[in-house]
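re: ur question from earlier - yeah i can do the single chain one, its not a big deal. heres the input i used so u can compare w yours
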Amino acid sequence: MEHVLPTPAAPPRVVVLTGDVQPREMAEAERLGRVRYVHEPQLADALPDADVFFMWDFLSDAVAGSWPSAGGPSWVHIASAGVDRLAFPALAESDVVVTNSRGVFDEPIAEYVLGLVLAFAKDFGTTVRLQGERRWRHRETERITGARALVVGTGPIGRAIARRLSAAGPAVWGAGRAARDGDPDFGVVKSVAALGEALAEADYVVLAAPLTAQTRGMIDAAALDRMRPSARLINVGRGGLVAEPDLVKALSAGRIAGAALDVFEDEPLPPSSPLWDMPNVIVSPHMSGDVVGWRDELVHLFTENLGRYVSGRPLRNVVDKRLGYVGSDAGQNQRG
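and the output i got, formated as tokens:
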């Protein structure tokens, strides 16, 4: 999806919402525009005069409450693939163009998912625990060749996951908006509307879908009941895809064999969460796509788009705000 904004007559005013970590490698962006770095308390004051808003702190919940009633940026770029924190009415119903950071996280997340599948199959968690206890206990483990993996979300991240898993041995298929055969990465894609049937066939269920009104809570008690008792759930999408209390109950009752969760409804995951102590659960702090140099890649992508904006060329990664992701089925995924 391409979109050309009017070429600015002067260097654009760029507001960057920073968090605990300041973006580096911003020299080129500062050459192209007049850049102002702000934290959440200054955001409401800065946005009305901005031409461009770079949401570097992609986990912030302050944007909706700080959005101006008049004026403001014509283009918003977020340093993540997921745009659910920008899905508030004042922005969603406006003419403001939203772009995301699609493409930065695909391969790192795919590698992470493969690692989790291997960790479950080879029981690495138990091995590490036994080593810590200095206990020698021989065990048998599982093969991943011949296992069946369902990837929910057929966008770039889901496709990278499918390719990586397929190369390692599991049979992979997908679930997306539209059912189809002959997909180059998944072979068969089931409709999300028929998700229950697909869940019943999978040894590994990998969630890489965007968080929208349609996908929120899609893995609930009914969905978990459809999964095999030996199946594992892996979530690298958004925490809101899973009804967390239902998952805790299913894991406690042994209705599924395990879960690896990189994202949660509330982040950081509260210390009181029972997920921390479950031996069949892997908890990671929203890091599956965060490899050495990832922040610089995010800045480079924004800077490239800023150069396109200044020169009147089409922007990359324009989000269809009705759908919540970059338009077309290939954009049905998110991260960050």
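The longest strand covers residues 171-176. not sure if urs matches, ping me
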